[in-house]
Protein 1
Amino acid sequence: MKRWFLVGLVVVLYALHQDFWFWRTAQPLVFGSLPVGVFYHVCYTLAVSLLMWLLVQLAWPSKLEAVETSTAEEEPAP
Amino acid sequence: MIPVLVVFVYLASVLYIGIFAFRRSAQRNKAEDYFLAGRSLGVVVFLLSLFGTNMTAFALLGSSGHAFANGIVTYGLMASSSALIVPLSLFFIGTRMWALGKKYGFMTPVQMFRDRWECGHIGTVITVVQAVLLIPYIVIGVMGGGTTMNAISGGRIPFWVGGAIVAMVVMSYVFFGGMRGTAWVNAFQTTLFLLFGAIALGVIGTGMGGFDKAVSELAASPATSALLTRERVSPLYFFSYTFIPLSSICFPHIIIFCLTAERVQHFKKTVVLYPLCMLAIWLPAVFLGVTANRAVEVPAIRAKLEARSTLATQSATLSPEQKTELRAKAAGDDILVRLLEHYAPLWLVGLLGAGIMAAVMASDSQILALSTMFTEDIFAFYEGKTKFGEAAQVRTGHIFVILITVIAYVIALRWPQSIFDLAVQFAFSGYAALMPLLVGALFWKRSTKWGALAVTLWAAAAVIAIAGFQTVVPAPAPGAEVGWGSLFGQAIVSRTAAGTSVLGFLPVVPMVIVSFVLMMVVSLLTAKPGEATLKRYFANA
């Protein structure tokens, strides 16, 4: 369930990059000088950071951490 | 001369950091120490250096130049798409590659491919294609160095001297410092250009009488209002750009850099903070590029605007030579420097120039990566390490660093194309098409060496085809396109002013899709690796 929720979030965020709704307008100018299309993508970038935080919290591949403890007896590739 | 002096002080600092970092290492003759900093980088250096490694001349000079010509669309095209795709790639692929490197001692992706797919010479083919695709990226750094030095010195330092100075500095600290020196220099540089982006925005904004005024004027003029929207690009073109950042993790210097982290937990902060770093660098660069269209009081910028206007209005009557000359005049790769030299005090121009130099010098990691690939995938694989020993391998790496720098410099002098076009059309698209190699090796048991070979040959052939097509068919005027064939009312292949499109998409889209299809079809038709190998890679094999 958790996995599909996260996959869904990634897909939704990818789709939201294609914001055709602000394609042909610069208005409103947010903070007086930021065209709304750029402001949207600034918010989008912040949302991506939040998504990555969620992935780290909920889907971190913790099994990879086991490799750190076995470094001493590093296994050479055959 | 003050700005030039400040930049030289900066270059001296970078040299000192690179060489000082090398002296800290007691195992300088060990390949793992020279090429991977002994897999011991801490979280702060890892994050800053990884980000700096991804930010080349392209990020500051290319983006502001692209925004100058195309408007705010630049941020959505390149920054916010990378802010999503690059951290996801690091999260899913970078961490797994790190673990395999730590477990089996891999120092390059091809070492892992050879082991995973039980192949030898196919790995060599992959190395060669990766190396050839990486060279244009290194050239960008040299070109950026030449452009910046030339602009900061007011033309007193010619392009070829500026490029040579930057190439020499980079070569020196890579030669002496290896990965440790490169990582520390990159961390220092990233800190600088994160700070300087904000400073440049404030200083230029004040000089221009406030951004509100500049943006209002842009919006009011019919000639420039489109720069504040995305109406100049099609949604298909915009969508295509989300495929470009797939190249990031496939670049050898990025995937090799993933092996330098001391602990896998270092990736946690990196993937969360990466989008914020993108925002901090790209928003000022794009915004300044767009608003530069109102900086008509700057003579150099006024000349660019006039050249652009002539190209747009008199294209039909101009000779190809005149068009090339006007395109060079209108190019915006030095737009940031031109703004700074007009609006900032001299000492600050130098300081900010050093910040720009920090970005253009990111070619260090690519040079080191090429050297690592040559010594590990070619020299060591073909028994050089066995015959001559590890110290000879490291010395070979040193020599290779010099060779590759000289080659990149010579190409930079002879290649007049704009930084941005060069990067996107060849290196980025080619590497994005190599994505199925990493995905197949790490996530799909059934992938085979023949699938990998098909993907590699396809990526190389597609890049050659695009380069050939664009050489044979001259670019039409901006806004126009020459098309061949038709499908659903859309030209199958088109030559545009910026490059090539396939069914309205950038070539990278069909390149990546065909690449994944080839990996699947060819792998399913050929024998998979042995069970013992698969068990080492997939717990449930």
Note: The beta strands of chain B are 481-484, 493-496, 500-502.
Protein 2
Amino acid sequence: MTETVTPLQKGKRILLVDDEREYVLILAKRLRRRGFQVSTAFNGSDGIQAMRRNDFDAAVVDLKMVDIDGIEVLKVFKRMAPEVAVIMLTGHGSAQAATEGLQLGAADYLSKPCDLDELVHKIEMACQPSHNG
Amino acid sequence: MEWRSRTSEEDKQFSHQSYYRSLMRKMMATILLVSITPLIVISASILYNLEASYRAKAMDYLQVLVKNHRNDIDNFLEERLADIKMLSTFCTLEQLSDEEFLRQQLNRLHSTYPHVFVDLGVVDGDGMQRSYAGPFKLASADYADAQWFKEAIKKDFYISDVFMGLRGLPHFIVSVRTKANGRTWILRATVDFEAFNSRVQTIQIGATGFAFILNRAGEFVTKPRVGIANVSKYSKQLIESADKDSEHVYVLEPENGADAPTLYVYSALKGGDWVLVYQQNARDAFSVIYRARIIAGLIFAFAVGCIVVVSIVMSRNMVRRIVESDAQKELMNEQVVHAGKLASIGELAAGIAHEINNPLAIMMEEAGWMEDLLDEEELKDSDNMEEYSRALAQIKKQGKRCKEITHKLLSFARRTDPEAKNVQLNEIIAEVINLSEQRAKYANVKLVANLAPELPSVSISPSEIQQVLLNLINNSLDALAPRGGTVEVSTRAIGDRVQIDLEDDGPGIPEANLSRIFDPFFTTKPVGSGTGLGLSICYGILKKMGGEITVNSAVGVGTIFHVSVPATQEEPGTPQDPLLRQAAQSAN
């Protein structure tokens, strides 16, 4: 299960944006254990700030947040750093929002609660050069 | 509580019944009023006008009749007088004093007017009869004291009342006074009473109509047939009101409330000495009116009877229809309420599901984290390692179950429409059956597709209809599971809809459960193996796409679900084009 650490993802810089603090923290812990460099933001505006300051390979953004909607955050990310792959996290009921996210340039989406392996797989896929162009 | 609720239910029923009963009564009353009132007005006015005009006509007829007869009788008397006048003018007193000559004249009169003149006589100024021709022996009768003579001697000509006279038979006298040789003479003739009487009695109409003549003293000049008592009651009134000099015909209709009201039509004749009276029972005179009244009454009664019957039948039918439509409305209201309830339950459930999603995600990640940590070397040798792993696996497994529930709840209540496109149901069904084949094999169930060719395409979300069909097939498979059986999926076009029938020969659904199977969380499966959301999700999806789902089931026979969705209004062929379908799919 945990033997998925590959040289490719070593050192990959990930930004996690979700207003569910506990979720971000545990997810960050698990991803770090798998070799990712993880930054966390607990709301949309913090996420944008983080994106402005640092370079990331990928961002995982929750759709439903209290201050700024995930879709808006996605739009800003795509303007600021179009090369960063964005994966949207959704509740199952917001499939349409996820589709909208894909149309706005998100690399992929996942519905919460998600399997960590699946998330890792999607991040890997999104960071492939073919998906990054 | 039960007792109270039952009585309130009965009260409701009772008030409904009394409401419908009063509604029926009102309808009946309205129909009766609206139809019978004009009927009464119309028939009354027609009858009244008919009666008035017929009465006037009948009266006119009687008046003309009486007038003609009066003229006839007057003429008869005038003519008889003229006969006698002619004799006295053209014959000398000497000739008339000769009985032989007188007899010849009488014979001549007899041959001209049979049964009119009885005899002839010449009377001198003192009342002595000088000569006589006739059947009686009155050759030298003395009329000096006779009433007629006293009158006749005063006038040039005279017609007497009917009297018995010397011969003891009813008769009347026509006399002419002449002067010859310085002396006054009277030529008199007796008119046969029977002949005259029959002349009056010929006026006879109906069963009770007859005529008679009264003199000024109120005595009968002719013999009335019947009704003397009544006549004498009004004779004075009749005589006084008949104007002597007028030819007018009068009508008297005494309103005495007698059981047989009588009608008198009369006119003065013989210069006012006599009054010709025609008497008839009013009922008889206007018998046509009375008959018309009876017929009209019968028709009216028949019409009213018909109206009453029609009003009863009509109001009953109408109230029955109202009851039916009310019941239907109530049922529909219930359905609407039920649908609304489903919708609100769905929204509530969606809210809860959404809120649960995040804590659930955290819990599962934490469990994952613990799993990650268990991989570390120093823990691998722990005694309870196996138990930790099992517990974490169990947490993840149950977490997944929760996730499934929340996701199903969210699909049930999902407001956003996944994109609909034109699809061929047959293809989707084939796919779904393909997907279920493996499970069916384990459940020992035979899946049969019976798909109608050239089915119109439908405009729906393929993934959603797939979900519906999968749900239904899974339910059937679950129902058939231990024993096995057959599930048949068939399609057909009905009007502008496409229907999918999904039939299994499983144990069936008890009637008590049938009305609840589309309710969220209703399940008959053991705790843990079913969420009770499958069918309510199907229901929600189909409602949203304008489709319907109904179920028929019989315990021990099987269950059949009917799913119907509206067909696309498009030329056939397009959606079947595999290239287009492929393009549509890749575009998604």
Note: The helical segments of chain A are 21-33, 44-53, 70-80, 95-103, 116-127, 129-132.
